[in-house]
Amino acid sequence: MRMLVRKTHWLALGLALLTALLYWSGRADAHGKEVNIAVTCVAPDPGRPLTKACTASLKYLDGDPVTKANLELTATRQGAAELSLTPVKFKPLDQEGLYAATVTFPAYGRWRIRFTVREPDKGEAELIEELAPPVPGASSDVRARLQVVFAFGGADVRNLAIRVAHLLGAASWFALSGLALVLSGLPESPQRRQLLQRLAATFPPRAGVALAVVAATGVLSARYNAPTRPPGLFAPEVVAGLPFGEAYLAVFLVKMALGLAIIATTVALAISLRRGHGVMVPAVAGASEGFPASPARERNWVVLLAAVNIVLGLLLFVDVVLMGYVHIISHVGAAAGAG
């Protein structure tokens, strides 16, 4: 009973920790880590080219505007006499994702301009711009496209926790299927029958818990670890609009099909283990051991189903690798402006 209470406490602690992580990082979307910034700075008065009206458009890689952003501009002039610009904060405009500020540079020269985003997460990007006195026919406008990559934060902790839990659940299920296959392939002996009997009793709850963890963390991954911001894969039309988005959805559907096949095979394996090794006939007087009540055919089914489970697991692993690759090229394509 004490062991059960301890396990319950650890389970409750783990769930509380995961809940806290989800709450703590709820504002930082998993795929809001990369933001494209399009900046245009124009001198309203040609006679004062160092004063510029700047407009910044902030968008996530999936095209959604970044709302309630805290965007700040700082600048430092390079050269012998360094000058610094007092930080200038951008104010949101009526249109979502658009921000504006008026910037006055103290002198001409080569300026390192830094754009810092402090909300919804922290990140920065910079550019080098040469500000020169006006020349007839020349333009002093500043136009640039940048990308801000947010620093490691709460969303990353949450995503790592989800991925680790997902991996541990999958590894536990894989180990159980491998154990059933190995034990079924061993030569007949009392020790083998004992081990298989124990496995037949513990396989259903352990495999059930492992698959439940995989399913729960899989739902969270589909929401937070897709190429788009939440709701992620629960908005497939948004994912399909990304570069390589349709390919990502196709690979994901294959993963779901393999997952359903694994669940069905695992249930069948649990039933075969119970039938083939779950009930032992008591030893008869003069005999040293009992023997399985079920025919050898059930034990053959255990070998077959365990092998099928292993193969399905390996195929699922390959599919996950493909998903990771398509995920990466989807981000690269979006950052490059591919449609």
Helix/strand layout:
Elements: H1 2-24, E1 34-42, E2 51-60, E3 70-77, E4 83-89, E5 91-92, E6 98-104, E7 109-119, E8 123-131, E9 142-150, H2 154-185, H3 190-224, H4 236-240, H5 245-277, E10 280-281, E11 291-292, H6 296-335
Antiparallel strand pairs: 1-2, 1-9, 2-6, 3-4, 3-7, 5-6, 7-8, 8-9, 10-11
Helix pairs in contact: 1-2, 2-3, 2-6, 3-5, 5-6
Features:
6 helices, nine-stranded antiparallel β-sheet, alpha+beta, 339 residues, disordered N terminus, single chain, two-stranded antiparallel ribbon, 50% helix
Give a quick summary of the entry.
The chain has 339 residues and is of the alpha+beta class.
Task: Give an overview of the whole structure.
This protein has six helices and eleven strands. The protein has 339 residues and is α+β, with helices and mostly antiparallel strands. Helix 2 packs antiparallel against helix 3, helix 3 packs antiparallel against helix 5 and helix 5 runs antiparallel to helix 6. The strands form two sheets. Strands 4-3-7-8-9-1-2-6-5 form a nine-stranded antiparallel β-sheet, with no helix packed on it. Strands 10-11 form a two-stranded antiparallel sheet.
Number-wise, the strands total 11
Rough outline: rod-shaped
Number of contiguous helices: 6
Cross-sheet strand order for the largest sheet: 4-3-7-8-9-1-2-6-5
Taking the alpha carbons of the first and last residues, their distance comes to 59 Å
Report Rg: 30 Å
Mean pLDDT comes to: 81
Strand content: 15-25%
